[in-house]
Specification:
Radius of gyration: 20 Å
Number of helices: 0
Helix content: under 10%
Number of strands: 5
Low-confidence stretches: none
Largest sheet: 3 strands, antiparallel
Strand content: 25-35%
Oligomer: single chain
Distance between the termini: 45 Å
């Protein structure tokens, strides 16, 4: 059988420690303040730098949308807080941590 790869994605984790472990790397992973364990990997790819960006089509009302940092401020139902009419609600998906 051809070479198989065991690939694991670990979203929302931080690498708090990386030690050279022979042919690979031993990583200590954290989520928030909690250590969630160690893993050993021969290849490590770190994906960093993701930022939310306001879509271009919202630019005309951008100054009316409440933001916290670079995220839209939302209610529990993911409706955006804004200074527009209360009966005209905006909902977002995957645009904030919630």
């Amino acid at each position: 059988e051809p070479h198989q790869c065991d690939i694991t994605l670990r979203p929302s984790c931080n690498v708090s420690r990386c030690i050279n472990a022979g042919a690979g790397h031993r990583l200590t992973l954290q989520r928030g303040m909690d250590n969630i364990g160690e893993v050993t990997a021969d290849i490590v790819i770190l994906a960093t730098g993701y930022e939310n960006a306001l879509p271009d089509f919202l630019e005309p009302i951008a100054d009316r949308l409440e933001q916290i940092g670079n995220e839209l401020a939302t209610g529990e139902d993911f409706s955006v807080y804004w200074d527009g009419p209360r009966d005209r609600r905006l909902f977002v998906q995957n645009a904030c941590l919630g």
